[in-house]
Design goal:
With 1006 residues, the protein is mostly helical.
C-alpha cells in the first residue's frame, strides 16, 4: 500500500511537471504506467481518472506557456539570401508547369511558362552572378521540348484537344522553339549527362540536417536516412510533397526527443549526476536571450550572417559596368568595317544593312545612330558624294530617337544634329556646282532589296565562285569587285550627274524639325533654371544654321523653301527689341570666339595692367583684361523687311499671314505705331483671321494686337491703345496669348485638348508681361472714363450711352462697395486709387500713383520709361482739367485762364485748346471773354424735349457707326475716303461732334 501510494504521488508530480513543460498529459501518464509495474494493479482506477483529466489537461495544457516562447519554438527564423529566394520561386513555377504537363493543359503551360521566362529575365543579374540558369530549368526545357514534339506527332490526341489548348500548343511550338535556341548547348550537355548535381547536393544537405539530432533515437535517424535515400532516387515531381512532409517529421522528432527526456527524468528523479552534467552542457549550448520553454527545448537554429554591401562599391561597380558597355559599343561601331576592307562599296553595303534593319523589332534607334555616326566618320575621306547621303541618314536617325510627340530632343543630340546640318551646308558651299536631289520611297525600298540580294550573292560567291579582276588577272573579293564596278560606273557619268547627290531627306524639313525640337525643349524646361538660360544660347546657332541652308536654296533657285526658311528666321527675330538683339548677337559672337564665359580665368575677368607686366606680381591673364568682341551692327528692321518680302512673294497663304503679323509686331515693339497700323489696315487680317482655322496663327494675331496697343500707349494715343487692348485684356489673357492654361471652373476640355493646348504655349522668354498689359489697359480706360463719369454725374445720368470701358466701370463699382480700402498693393489697386484721386481733381496724387509703378521698368529701350512718364503727365493734366470742369463748372460764373493754367501746371495755349474743344463738342456750355481771358459759364437747362432729342441723336450716331462698319466690311474701304487712298500715310476719319476717332477693325479681334 505504501509503495502504491508513493507511486501515485510520483505519478502526480510527473503529471504536474509535464503540464509545466506543456507536454501532453496522456502521453506522460501512458509512459509512466508502462514504466511502473505497481500502477498496473490499479489500471482501472487510473484509466478512469486519466479519462476524466484529459479534457481538463487539454484545456489547461498551455496555461504555463508564454506566447513568445511558443512562437519562438514553432517559427524558426531563417535568413535567406536573394539567390535562395529566387531559386524557390523558380522551383515553385517549375512545379506548376510540370503539374500542367501531366494533364496536357497547354493553356496553363503557356501561361506559367511565360511567367517563368519573365521571372528569369528580371533576375538576369542574379543568374549572371551564379553561373547562369539553374540545372532544373534546363531539365524543364528538355522535358517541355520532348513533350511538345510528342504532342505534335500524335495527331489523334491533338484533334481531341480543346480549341484553347490547341492554340496554345501551336503558339508553344513557335515561341518555345525560338526561345530554346539560346539554350541549345546547355540542353545538349544535360541530355548527354542528365544528372542534377545541384539538386542532389541540396537533398544531401537536407538529409544531413534532418539526421542531425540526439543519439538516443536511433529509429528516427534510420527513418530519416531511408527517407533521404528514397527522396534522392525519386523523381523531382515529388519534391513538393517531400517539402510538405519535412515539417511534420521534424515536429514528430521533437516530441520524441522530449518524450525520451521525460523518461530519463522519471527514472532518476532528482538524484542523477549524469542528468545534472547534461543540464550544464545544455545550458552552455543554449543561445543567449532565450527564456522559458524555448531555453530548455532543443531546436535547430540556423543563423546566417547578413553580408553588408558597401554602397560606394556598388555605385563604382555600376559605373564600371556602364563604361565597359559604352566602350564595347564604341569598339563595335569602330569595327563596323575593317581598315583593310574600307572602301565606298563596303560603306554603302553596310549602310544598306543598317537601313534595312531600321524600324524592325528589336532594333534600338540609339544603336543605329551610333553605327551611322561611325559610318559618317569613315565616309568623310571618300568625298561629298559618299558623305552627304550618310549625314542625311544620320540626321533622320537622330530625329527618330523621340518616341512620343511630347518628347523633345536632348541637348547633346540637338547640337550634334545642328552640326551635321551645318556640315552639309559647308560642303555645299565649298562645292558650288553640287546639288541635292530627294530620294523617293521607291529608292529606299530598292536599297533594302539590294542589301538582301548582296548578302545572298556574297554568300554564294564565298562558297562556289572565285572572283578574278579582268584588268589585272588577280583574285579579288566580293567587296573589291563591287568597288571596281562602282568606280567604273562613276567614271562614265557626265558632270551634271556627278554633281547630283541623292539624299534621304530635305534640308528644309530638317531645319523645321530642328526648330520644333528647340521650341519643345523651351516649353518643357523650367524657365527659372540655369538650364533654360543655357538653352537660350542655342538660338543664335539655330539662326545661323537656317541662314546657311537658306543661302544654298537661294543659290539653286528654290523659292518655296527659301520662303519657309525666311519665316523660321522671322519668328525667332520679330519679338526682340534692338537693344536685346544686340546683346544676344554679342553673346553669340563671344561664345563662338572665346567659348563659355563661365570658363574664363578669374584674372582676365578682373583685369589688371595692360600691355604686360611682372608675371611674379600680376597674373598674365590680367594683362589684357577681360576679352571682348564688337560684332558688326545689323539693322534688324531692314533684315526683317527683306525676309518678309521674300515670304510675300513666294510663300503660301499661311506664310504670308504669319510674316505680316510678325512684321507688324516688330514695328510695334519699336514704338512705330503708324507703320504698324497702316500694315494692319491694308492687309485686312482682322477680317480673315477668324476663318483661317490655324490656332497658332490666331495666337500670333492676339500677340500682335497687344503689342500694337502697347505701342499706341507709349506714343500717347490713349484711345487707340484702349481699343486695341480692351478685347484681349478684358477676358482670359493667358489663354489668348498662349502664356498659360485656362483656370476657370467651366473648363470642359478633355485630355487631348489640354495636351494640344500645352503644345501651343509660347516659350517663357517670349511672354508679354501681364501686369504691363493690365496697367496700360486700365490707365487708358481711366483717362477715358473718369471725365465721362464726371459728366454723367453733372447730367444726373441722362447721357450715359457711351460706356467706353465696362471692364473699368465694373472694377470701379467694386472698389466703391468696399467697406475698408487699405493701401494699394497690386496694379489694379494703384489704378483704382488714382482714378478716385483724379475724380476729385487731385491730378498730382494720381500721377504719383501711376508713374511709380514697377511695371514700367519692363519696357525695353533706352529712355522709354521717361518717355512713358512724360506721356502720363501730359494726359493726367489734360484729363484732370476736363474732369474739374465737368464736376465743378456749375459752381462758377466765370473761370480765369491763368488760374486754370497754374492749378494744372499747363501752358495757357494748352488750357485754351482743351476748353475750346469742350465748347465745340457741347460738353461745356460756356464762352470765352477775350479781353479778360476768362471763361464765362452759361447755365442752360435743357428742356425735356431737348434732352430726348440729344439722346436720339446719340443713338442715331451709334447706329450710323455700326452700319458704316458693315458697309466697310463689304466694300473694303475700311474708313478711308477716296482721297485718303491716294496718300501714303492714310488716316482715320473724325466723326463730327463727339470727336471720336474711328477704330475700324483694329480693336479686339482674337
Amino acid at each position: 500500500a505504501k509503495e502504491s501510494s508513493s507511486s501515485r504521488k510520483r505519478c502526480f508530480y510527473v503529471s504536474k511537471m509535464s503540464k509545466f513543460w506543456a507536454q501532453d498529459s496522456s502521453s506522460e501518464s501512458g509512459s509512466n504506467s508502462e514504466s511502473d509495474s505497481d500502477s498496473s494493479s490499479n489500471s482501472d482506477s487510473s484509466a478512469s481518472s486519466s479519462n476524466q483529466k484529459k479534457a481538463g489537461d487539454t484545456n489547461n495544457a498551455n496555461r504555463w506557456v508564454m506566447d513568445s516562447d511558443s512562437s519562438s519554438d514553432d517559427d524558426v527564423r531563417v535568413v535567406k539570401s536573394a539567390k535562395d529566394k529566387a531559386w524557390e520561386n523558380f522551383q515553385d513555377q517549375v512545379t506548376k508547369i510540370r503539374n500542367a504537363m501531366k494533364i496536357s493543359a497547354w493553356n496553363n503551360i503557356q501561361t506559367e511558362f511565360d511567367t517563368l521566362v519573365k521571372m528569369m529575365s528580371k533576375a538576369s543579374s542574379l543568374l549572371a552572378a551564379n553561373n547562369g540558369h539553374p540545372k532544373f530549368y534546363i531539365k524543364l526545357l528538355c522535358d517541355l521540348d520532348d513533350q511538345v514534339t510528342a504532342s505534335l506527332k500524335d495527331k489523334v490526341a491533338f484533334k481531341k484537344l480543346s480549341a484553347a489548348n490547341g492554340r496554345s500548343l501551336n503558339r508553344m511550338k513557335l515561341a518555345f522553339r525560338k526561345y530554346i535556341k539560346d539554350f541549345a548547348e546547355q540542353m545538349k550537355e544535360w541530355r548527354a549527362n542528365p544528372v542534377d548535381d545541384e539538386e542532389q547536393d541540396k537533398d544531401d544537405s537536407d538529409s544531413d540536417s534532418d539526421s542531425d539530432s540526439d543519439s538516443d533515437s536511433d529509429s528516427d535517424s534510420d527513418s530519416d536516412e531511408s527517407s533521404s535515400s528514397s527522396s534522392s532516387d525519386s523523381d523531382s515531381d515529388e519534391k513538393p510533397k517531400e517539402k510538405d512532409a519535412k515539417p511534420n517529421a521534424a515536429a514528430k522528432k521533437k516530441s520524441a526527443d522530449l518524450g525520451s527526456g521525460s523518461d530519463s527524468d522519471s527514472d532518476d528523479w532528482g538524484s542523477d549526476s549524469d542528468s545534472s552534467s547534461d543540464d550544464e552542457d545544455d545550458d552552455e549550448d543554449v543561445p543567449a536571450g532565450l527564456t522559458g520553454r524555448a531555453r530548455w527545448l532543443k531546436s535547430a537554429v540556423v543563423v546566417k550572417e547578413k553580408v553588408v554591401k558597401d554602397k560606394n562599391e556598388r555605385s563604382e561597380k555600376r559605373k564600371a559596368e556602364k563604361e565597359m558597355k559604352m566602350a564595347a559599343i564604341s569598339v563595335k561601331s569602330k569595327a563596323i568595317i575593317s581598315e583593310e576592307e574600307c572602301n565606298v562599296a563596303a560603306i554603302e553595303k553596310k549602310l544598306n544593312e543598317v537601313i534595312a534593319s531600321r524600324g524592325r523589332k528589336g532594333t534600338k534607334p540609339k544603336d543605329l545612330a551610333l553605327q551611322l555616326s561611325a559610318l559618317c566618320k569613315l565616309s568623310a575621306r571618300f568625298g561629298p558624294r559618299v558623305e552627304l547621303p550618310m549625314l542625311t541618314h544620320l540626321i533622320s536617325a537622330k530625329f527618330d530617337l523621340q518616341r512620343n510627340i511630347d518628347d523633345f530632343m536632348a541637348e547633346e543630340d540637338w547640337r550634334s544634329t545642328a552640326n551635321y546640318i551645318r556640315r552639309i551646308a559647308k560642303v555645299l558651299k565649298e562645292n558650288p556646282k553640287m546639288r541635292l536631289s530627294l530620294m523617293s520611297a521607291d529608292d529606299v525600298a530598292d536599297m533594302r532589296i539590294s542589301a538582301e540580294k548582296e548578302i545572298k550573292r556574297e554568300r554564294l560567291s564565298a562558297k562556289d565562285e572565285v572572283l578574278i579582276d579582268p584588268n589585272t588577272g588577280e583574285v579579288e573579293t566580293f567587296l573589291q569587285r563591287q568597288e571596281r564596278v562602282r568606280a567604273e560606273a562613276e567614271r562614265g557619268l557626265d558632270e551634271a550627274a556627278l554633281n547630283s547627290v541623292k539624299v534621304s531627306g530635305s534640308l528644309c524639313v530638317f531645319m523645321t524639325r530642328l526648330e520644333e525640337e528647340y521650341n519643345k525643349s523651351l516649353q518643357r524646361l523650367n524657365p527659372h533654371t540655369p538650364e533654360y538660360v543655357r538653352r537660350l544660347k542655342d538660338e543664335g546657332v539655330l539662326l545661323s544654321t537656317i541662314s546657311e541652308v537658306q543661302h544654298y536654296y537661294e543659290k539653286v533657285g528654290m523659292d518655296a523653301e527659301c520662303a519657309e526658311l525666311s519665316l523660321l528666321r522671322i519668328e525667332h527675330m520679330y519679338y526682340k527689341h534692338d537693344t536685346i538683339a544686340k546683346g544676344v548677337d554679342k553673346a553669340s559672337a563671344f561664345a563662338e570666339k572665346f567659348g563659355d564665359s563661365e570658363m574664363l580665368h578669374p584674372a582676365c575677368v578682373v583685369g589688371g595692367t595692360e600691355g604686360g607686366g611682372d608675371a611674379q606680381k600680376v597674373h598674365p591673364g590680367a594683362w589684357s583684361s577681360k576679352p571682348d568682341v564688337s560684332p558688326e551692327g545689323v539693322d534688324t528692321a531692314a533684315v526683317i523687311a527683306t525676309l518678309c518680302r521674300n515670304c510675300y512673294e513666294h510663300g503660301d497663304d499661311r506664310a504670308k499671314t504669319r510674316a505680316m503679323l510678325c512684321h507688324i509686331t516688330h514695328h510695334a515693339v519699336h514704338s512705330r505705331f503708324r507703320q504698324a497700323r497702316d500694315l494692319l489696315l491694308m492687309s485686312h487680317l482682322q477680317d480673315t483671321i477668324s476663318s483661317s482655322g490655324d490656332i497658332s496663327t490666331m495666337i500670333l494675331f492676339n500677340r500682335m494686337m497687344v503689342n500694337v496697343g502697347l505701342a499706341a500707349f507709349r506714343c500717347g494715343r490713349v484711345s487707340d491703345a484702349h481699343q486695341c487692348l480692351t478685347e484681349i485684356a478684358s477676358s482670359r489673357v493667358r489663354e489668348l496669348l498662349a502664356q498659360g492654361l485656362s483656370r476657370f471652373n467651366g473648363n470642359d476640355k478633355n485630355t487631348e485638348q489640354e495636351k494640344a493646348e500645352k503644345r501651343r504655349q509660347v516659350p517663357f522668354h517670349m511672354h508679354i508681361n501681364l501686369d504691363l498689359i493690365e496697367a496700360c489697359h486700365l490707365i487708358s480706360a481711366m483717362l477715358l472714363e473718369v471725365p465721362q463719369m464726371a459728366q454723367e454725374k453733372r447730367n444726373h445720368g441722362e447721357n450715359n450711352y457711351y460706356v467706353k470701358s465696362r471692364h473699368f466701370r465694373k472694377y470701379s463699382e467694386s472698389y466703391d462697395r468696399q467697406v475698408f480700402t487699405g493701401p494699394p498693393e497690386h496694379t489694379r489697386d494703384f489704378v483704382m486709387t488714382a482714378s478716385k484721386a483724379l475724380m476729385k481733381g487731385k491730378w498730382k496724387e494720381c500721377y504719383d500713383l501711376i508713374a511709380n509703378l514697377n511695371v514700367w521698368q519692363l519696357v525695353p529701350g533706352e529712355g522709354e520709361v521717361e518717355k512713358i512718364r512724360g506721356v502720363l503727365l501730359k494726359e493726367v493734366k489734360e484729363q484732370g482739367l476736363r474732369t474739374f470742369l465737368f464736376a465743378y463748372s456749375s459752381n462758377y460764373d466765370s473761370l480765369s485762364l491763368a488760374d486754370l493754367s497754374a492749378q494744372f501746371d499747363l501752358e495757357p495755349p494748352q488750357v485754351h485748346s482743351v476748353v475750346s474743344k469742350m465748347m465745340m463738342n457741347w460738353e461745356l456750355t460756356a464762352s470765352w471773354d477775350g479781353p479778360t481771358d476768362t471763361i464765362t459759364v452759361h447755365r442752360v437747362e435743357h428742356t425735356r424735349l431737348q434732352t430726348l432729342a440729344l439722346q436720339t441723336a446719340d443713338k442715331v450716331s451709334g447706329l450710323m457707326d455700326s452700319n458704316e462698319k458693315l458697309l466697310d466690311a463689304r466694300s473694303g474701304l475700311y474708313g478711308f475716303s477716296d482721297s485718303d487712298l491716294g496718300r501714303s500715310g492714310g488716316g482715320w476719319r473724325d466723326k463730327g461732334n463727339n470727336n471720336r476717332q474711328r477704330s475700324g477693325p483694329v480693336g479686339g479681334q482674337r
